[in-house]
Design goal:
Number of strands: 6
Order of helices and strands: EHHEHEHEHEHEH
CATH topology: Rossmann fold
Distance between the termini: 18 Å
CATH class: Alpha Beta
Shape: globular
Largest sheet: 6 strands, parallel
Helix content: 25-40%
Radius of gyration: 15 Å
CATH superfamily: Isochorismatase-like
Number of helices: 7
Structural class: alpha/beta
Strand order of the largest sheet: 3-2-1-4-5-6
CATH architecture: 3-Layer(aba) Sandwich
Length: 187
């Protein structure tokens, strides 16, 4: 870890990216095999942030009809689709749900404004997909002036090469890579 960046949970918010039934439940249409492994670690971090009284944001990806996302993926994950809900493994009542329509959770949402109102300076990012929504959000957060901490053992994607590429790129100029145990001990 870089010596000039120290995670302080009292300055941080936890972003739980797209832990939806669609990606995280065994019967999900786009099931990510590693999602089951990261659920316990994310759950423990949710408890740590909840105990510290710090913000927890669950993002919920929804595709806008006719959007580039829909064209790219040939599907449309709609709000009324039961698979678009946060996986049953988490209680979204411990935080807030942010609906987003792009990989980047800041794009066309009130995320930045809400974080600034709560005096958040640092973001801890976990969830799926490491190389799409987690990476895009991490890059955007850094460019907006937030210190970014990507929890390497609490993100998942489809291929090891995608995961490794994201960690290499983010650690070079956008995020501090941490393990979930490091985050939890900061409470």
């Amino acid at each position: 870890m870089r010596e000039d960046f120290v995670l302080d949970i009292k300055k941080a918010a936890l972003l739980v990216i797209d832990m939806q039934k669609y990606f995280c439940d065994n019967d999900g249409k786009a099931y990510v095999p590693g999602a089951d492994i990261v659920k316990k670690r994310i759950h423990d971090m949710i408890d740590a942030f909840s105990n510290a009284g710090q913000p927890i944001i669950f993002t919920r990806h929804l595709d806008a009809p006719g959007s580039l996302m829909e064209r790219w993926w040939k599907e449309n994950l709609k709000e009324d689709d039961p698979q678009s809900k946060i996986t049953r493994d988490f209680d979204p009542g411990k935080g807030e749900i942010l609906k987003k329509h792009q990989y980047d959770a800041f794009q066309d949402t009130d995320l930045e404004k809400n974080l600034r109102k709560q005096n958040v300076e640092q973001l801890v990012i976990c969830g799926v997909l490491t190389n799409l929504c987690c990476e895009s959000t991490a890059r955007s957060a850094f460019m907006k002036g937030f210190e970014v901490y990507l929890v390497t053992d609490a993100t998942a994607t489809y291929k090891k090469e995608m995961y490794d590429g994201t960690l290499l790129n983010l650690s070079y100029g956008f995020a501090i890579l941490v393990k979930s145990k490091e985050v939890i001990k900061r409470q």
